[in-house]
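quick one before i forget lol
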Amino acid sequence: MDMEALFGELGRTLADKGKAAATKARDLTEAVQVKAQINSEKRKLQETFAVLGHLYYKEHRGENGHPQQGVFEAIKEGEQRIRELEEKLKDLEDMAVCPECGFRVSKEAAYCSKCGRKLRGDNGEEGSEIPALPVLEEEKNQAD
């Protein structure tokens, strides 16, 4: 075999191997994309089941003797624990909640930075008796 034939054969072999590698890489890339699509669909399905479960819970939680009563109680207990932990977190973070709009503000704040409600009187006491600044309903909805 002469050198020209050898290099020709080597070139064809390299070209074939390159094509095979490119095909394999394309197949692997496509497999990764399909796996990502599968995971996305699984997440959507889990979210849908969660919505369905929430709707079922809201509809049946008050029924006495319901077969899922134990699950309903666990949910209620979990919600209560979350509320307690949120209160604890507010205390730890030195935060308060605006009675007008529910926005979290510093305990020392005189006014709510979201709705403008006066939170403290001139003497530093909480201003629960002080009327809130008028906020247009449209502005409230945009803020939410």
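fyi The first strand starts at residue 95 and ends at 97.
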